[in-house]
Every structure is written in C-alpha cells, then in structure tokens.
C-alpha cells in the first residue's frame, strides 16, 4: 500500500484532479439558484371554480411562471365524453363509460388534448360536448377512475391543477387552494367571447342559460359537487385583470415556498 508521502507522480496528479472535481461540484451546488432549489418544494396548486371564472387562463399563466405542469381536469371529462360519443357508448351506461375512462390514453397538457391518438383539442370545446362532459362528470365510477389518474399526475408536485373538486377531493392537502369565481354576467360574457369554445356562434343570453344549467348540475350532483373548500382562498375575478389574479395566487405560492 502506498503511504501519502510516497505517492507516485501519477497518484498525486490523480489526487489533485479528484480534489478539483470535488471543489468544482461543491461550488456549483452553492450557486444561489441551487441553494433556492434545495429548499423550494414543488407545490401542488389547486384551482377550482365554476365555468367562466377564469380558471384556465389563470392556471396556464401561473404554471408557466413557475415552470409547473398545467393540468385541465375538465378536459379529461370532456375527452372521455367525446370518446364515448365517438364509440356510440350510451352516456347513461356507467360501466361502459367507465371502461372508456379506464383504458383511454389521455393527454391534457401544453394546450393539446388527445384521447387514444385523436387530437380533440377543438372538438371538445363545443356546446354539445359541454353537455356530454357534465353528464359524464356525474358518474361516480368515472370520477373515481379520473381522480386516480389526476392524483398520479400531480403526486410529485410542480403542478397547477384546475377543475371542480381538486382542493376538496383530488388533493385535499394541496399546498395552495384557490376558488375562482365571477359574476354570472361576466362568466357568460367571457364564454360568449371565447371563440375557441363556442365558435362565436352562440349569443351571450344562450351561453348564460347553458352555463347556469351546467353550474347547477355540477354543484348539486351527488358525488364531489363543486363546493368551496373550507381552507381555499376565494377570489372574485369580476373586473379583475388576469395578471392581478395570477399575482395574488403567486403570492400564496411564494408564502409556501419561503423558508419558515
Ligand atoms: O371545466 P370544464 O367546463 O371543461 O369541465 C367540463 C365538465 O366537467 C363540467 O361539467 C365540470 C366537470 N368537471 C368536474 O366535475 N370535475 C372536474 N375536476 C373538472 C370538471
């Protein structure tokens, strides 16, 4: 065995090289960004609320500011409803619709929604699929399957998940819970102006009526109805610019990320 004092030149060079690598790694680990990353937890941010409350825009902007994933769970119910329709599955056949939900290859990220290889990004934003999704979302077994999938997606954090039951059922221990709302008129106006959704063909009065019907169905169904979680922060977005709403939620997130 070689004593320290009797290292060969090669062993000494090797030792110096190892030391340089170790010091470099320590220095890199101590950069301000990495020190921040070390204590920054990847949060689960739950955004719930009725249609037209601004969940989509707020959740998307928030996720991109934080470098998180944005998961639109409403799109999952819509896509399953679309696929059931496409396959001629009766929407009141809970077992059959549940099978569609269980086996579907679903993707609802990055502004693209696809199910079993069909890009349904546009097809699921129609008044017809509004109704189909609401009726699929009433089925307890379908909810059970989709809630499991949502938990699997969000489990490790770094996610902004929007829907109706995220803070109450999917992630009751979410780090940040927000319930977005807006006046009925404002919600109807937003939806009527959302050409990606209605194709611009439906007037505000008809949209208001349809939204009201869906909200009633979503809030009164037996399983996981839309309700305000006791520990959610309620934000009325009526007349409030998106940037301001996002800033309020970011402040809640920052408070969770600050070292105690
Ligand atoms: O958010 P959205 O309009 O795309 O949702 C479509 C339907 O799915 C709507 O009726 C509400 C319902 N939904 C739900 O019950 N639970 C969720 N987590 C998300 C949406």
What is the secondary structure topology, with strand pairs?
Blueprint: H1 9-29, H2 32-39, E1 44-48, H3 55-66, E2 69-72, H4 73-86, H5 94-103, E3 106-109, E4 112-115, E5 118-119, H6 127-136, H7 140-154, E6 159-163, H8 166-170, E7 176-181, H9 184-193, H10 195-198, H11 204-220, E8 233-236, H12 242-257
Parallel strand pairs: 1-6, 1-7, 2-6, 7-8
Antiparallel strand pairs: 3-4, 4-5
Helix pairs in contact: 3-12, 4-5, 4-6, 5-7, 6-11, 9-11
This protein binds 2'-deoxycytidine-5'-monophosphate.
The site of 2'-deoxycytidine-5'-monophosphate (DC) has 14 residues, from helix 4, helix 6 and helix 11.
Question: Your description of this structure?
Answer:
By secondary structure, the protein is of the alpha/beta class. Helices cover 55% and strands 13% of the residues. The strands form two sheets. It has a five-stranded parallel sheet, sandwiched between helices. Helix 6 (127-136) packs parallel to helix 11 (204-220) and helix 9 crosses helix 11. The termini are far apart.
Beta-strand percentage range: 5-15%
Number of helices: 12
Coarse morphology: globular
Query: According to CATH, what is the topology of the largest domain?
Result: Rossmann fold
List keywords for this structure.
260 residues, alpha/beta, Rossmann fold, 2 domains, five-stranded parallel β-sheet, three-stranded antiparallel β-sheet, 12 helices, 55% helix, globular, disordered N terminus, binds 2'-deoxycytidine-5'-monophosphate
């Amino acid at each position: 065995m070689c004593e320290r004092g009797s290292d060969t030149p090669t062993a000494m060079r090797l030792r110096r090289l190892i030391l340089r690598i170790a010091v470099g790694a320590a220095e890199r680990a101590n950069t301000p960004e990495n020190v921040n990353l070390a204590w920054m937890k990847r949060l689960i941010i739950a955004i719930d609320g009725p249609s037209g409350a601004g969940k989509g825009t707020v959740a998307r902007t928030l996720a991109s500011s934080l470098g998180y994933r944005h998961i639109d769970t409403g799109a999952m119910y819509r896509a399953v409803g679309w696929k059931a329709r496409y396959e001629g599955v009766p929407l009141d056949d809970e077992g059959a619709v549940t099978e569609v939900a269980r086996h579907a290859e679903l993707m609802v990220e990055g502004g693209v929604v696809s199910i079993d290889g069909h890009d349904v990004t546009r097809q699921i934003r129609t008044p017809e699929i509004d109704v189909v999704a609401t009726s699929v979302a009433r089925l307890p077994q379908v909810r059970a399957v989709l809630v499991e999938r949502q938990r699997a997606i969000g489990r490790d954090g770094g996610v902004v998940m929007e829907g109706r039951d995220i803070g109450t059922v999917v992630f009751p221990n979410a780090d940040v819970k927000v319930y977005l709302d807006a006046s009925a008129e404002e919600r109807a106006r937003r939806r009527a102006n959302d050409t990606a959704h209605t194709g611009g063909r439906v007037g505000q009065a008809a949209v208001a009526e349809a939204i009201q019907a869906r909200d009633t169905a979503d809030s009164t169904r037996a399983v996981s109805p839309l309700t305000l979680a006791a520990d959610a922060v309620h934000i009325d977005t009526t007349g409030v610019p998106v940037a301001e709403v996002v800033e309020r939620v970011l402040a809640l997130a920052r408070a969770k990320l600050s070292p105690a």
